[in-house]
Amino acid sequence: MASNVSLTLDKEALLEDGIPPTKKPRKLLPSLKTKRPQELVLVIGTGISAAVAPQVPALKSWKGLIQALLDAAIDFDLLEDEERKKFQKCLREDKNLIHVAHDLIQKLSPRTSNVRSTFFKDCLYEVFDDLESKMEDTGKQLLQSVLHLMENGALVLTTNFDNLLEIYAADQGKQLESLDLTDEKKVLEWAQEKRKLSVLHIHGVYTNPSGIVLHPAGYQNVLRNTEVMREIQKLYETKSFLFLGCGWTVDDTTFQALFLEAVKHKSDLEHFMLVRRGDVDEFKKLRENMLDKGIKVISYGNEYADLPEYFERLTDEISNRGRAGLPREGQLNGTAGAHTEVKADSIQLIALDSTSAIPSYETSS
Is the distance from CB of 87 to CB of 149 less than 8 angstroms? Predict the structure, then answer.
């Protein structure tokens, strides 16, 4: 009887007037929230784009993008029936998607007398048509947080082909520049923090089809430029990368070539990856895999819907600390700790989860 009374009281405590209790905010990790905006490099992956415009299949995964390009090519009568069937079969069987994408792009971009056809450009514009009208409010909340950190000194790079962040910023009356790896001078200036209101698209952006690359071989000009590569790799050693929507971006061949291959003692670094907790075993596996790359995997909650609020609180904490010049981790008691001495200028990266290890576009988990 007493047990029944207790259950009844508990239920009444949980539901007052039929309204569930407010969820307790998830705590922010001290080593992350004590960073300043200038110490951050935000890495934006597919998970963010998919959250901003969930009704656009091409934003959700690499496979979704290829399917959307294929659909556009079919609509424009650019493929013979046999070619269409071949590409569809490869997608169904999950063949090497990088090769599938490369073959499709080559088919849509034949070279005749050294002049590239514009069909690939047409298909890209069809796939990403009118993105602004497809952006949802919760996604805009994420972009606002990213923009807020940018304006306070954070650098931003992305593996995505879309320009959702630039579109959102323009709607707020702020101009962001889209960069790709074809412009070595601007990439160098970005890495030297001279172009902070620029977004580096390491695979290119759809508004400049000629700058789209699917493999490191596509931007040998950058890889062979020792000055540019030195400055880019220095970021991973001295800044903290914040990965948003890109849980497996560190397996992206382009990201590895730019930031990881020449960096030694990665496990001594401290970067961050924000992910949905989801499956406990998968979460633990990801956390273990990332530690040797110097990345702390942090859960923002159990649901995708928990991310905007969590990231907004994190952004406010970091931005306020940057403006006020508050002490950082290791200095809260007035003394500089060993961690701060070693990583005084480290930049943290936070990744919001996705599960594909395929370059540029990862499927959100």
Answer: no
> What pLDDT, on a 0 to 100 scale, did the predictor assign at position 62?
82
Nearest alpha-carbon partner for 269 in 291, 249, 287, 248: 291
Which residues lie across from 297 on neighbouring strands?
A: 273
Are 328 and 334 a contacting pair, CB within 8 Å?
no
Q: In this structure, is the dihedral angle defined by the CA atoms of residues 192, 197, 200 and 204, taken in order, positive or negative?
A: negative
List, as one string, the DSSP characters of 296-316: EEEEEESSGGGHHHHHHHHHH
Q: CA-to-CA distance for 322 and 35, rounded, in angstroms?
A: 8
β-pairing, 271-276 vs 240-244, is parallel
Specify the DSSP class assigned to residue 24.
P
DSSP 180: E
| Spacing of C-alpha 266 from chain mean position | 20
Q: Give pTM, 2 decimals.
A: 0.81
What is the pLDDT averaged over residues 67-83?
Answer: 93
Q: What is the largest CA-CA distance in the chain?
A: 89
Distance CA 241, CA 249 (A): 12
Residue 172 CA to residue 124 CA, distance in Å, equals 25
Name the band, by pLDDT with cuts 50, 70 and 90, for residue 266. confident
Q: Tell me whether residue 282 is exposed, middle or buried, using C-beta atoms within 10 angstroms of its C-beta: 0 to 12, 13 to 18, 19 or more.
A: middle
338/184: higher pLDDT:
184
Provide Rg for the chain, Cα atoms: 22
Collapsed DSSP state (helix, strand, coil) of residue 331 = coil
Residue ranges of the alpha helices (H) in the chain? 2-14, 30-33, 46-52, 62-75, 81-92, 97-108, 119-127, 137-151, 164-171, 184-191, 220-223, 226-238, 253-255, 280-291, 307-324, 338-342
